[in-house]
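One record is given unchanged without comment:
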Amino acid sequence: MTLKKFKPTTPGVRHMSVSSFEEITRSKPTKSLTVKLKKGSGRNFRGKITVRHRGGGADRRYRMVDFKGTGKLNIEAKVQSVEYDPNRSAYIMLLGYKDGEKTYQLAPDGIKVGDEIVTKEKGKIKLGNRMMIKNIPVGYNIYNVELTLGKGGQLGRSAGTIIKLTSLEGDHAQIQMPSGEVRKVDKDCYASIGQVSNLEFNNIKIGKAGRKRHMGWRPTVVGTAMNAKDHPHGGGKGHTSIGLKYPKTPWGMPALGFKTRKRHYTTKMIVKRRSK
């Protein structure tokens, strides 16, 4: 994948870059595998804003991606198209099974139209194939990894993500996350072979505010530009400092480096904490 850049004819496109979409083979989705997305603009059922800076944006339909794959166990499928999904950073692929059914799955980097993949307990080590972790050789790159048996892939779903299988010793398998964290996973959980597609996604530069609005994001204002009643950093004249020992969120909690993760039921499965 490469990025497409523009001539600096206006300030908005001077540094803008977009994906070249070289891997995309079809522009319109399969209608039977999509549903209409209702816009909430960050509001709950009472109309109160619970998520800030959301609203507007282009209309889009949700593609029903199959993160499990076990519903079609041992049935071979052929890749019919690689498509863009506006709801996620990765590309998706349309699979046509031998029994006639079609599904969407996350597309690995390097997958081509016409390739055949399958979901098995133990299958061939091939790009896009999905199988139990205990049947994957140590050192292989995997993605769309199950964290809970039967729940479907939860780890390694964003563009360009690689999870490395580091150990199969003991009762659990050990996987290394992109952050450097090493955690245990049940050996009977499923994972797909390869790396998630759209590798250059993180290098895309938005370029202008209007493009961000098309994505459904409303403007964000720094706390020092607000009134004192609206933000702990607010008040004062001009570009004054925040006047605090450490920065805070709009609700008074410590920000920038303060760990907010509460003890989770999967914390005991972490072997090594992330490096950053």
Q: What stands out?
A: The chain has a mean pLDDT of 93. The longest helix spans residues 209-214. The first strand starts at residue 3 and ends at 5. Residues 21-202 form a domain with the OB fold (Dihydrolipoamide Acetyltransferase, E2P) fold (CATH 2.40.50.140).
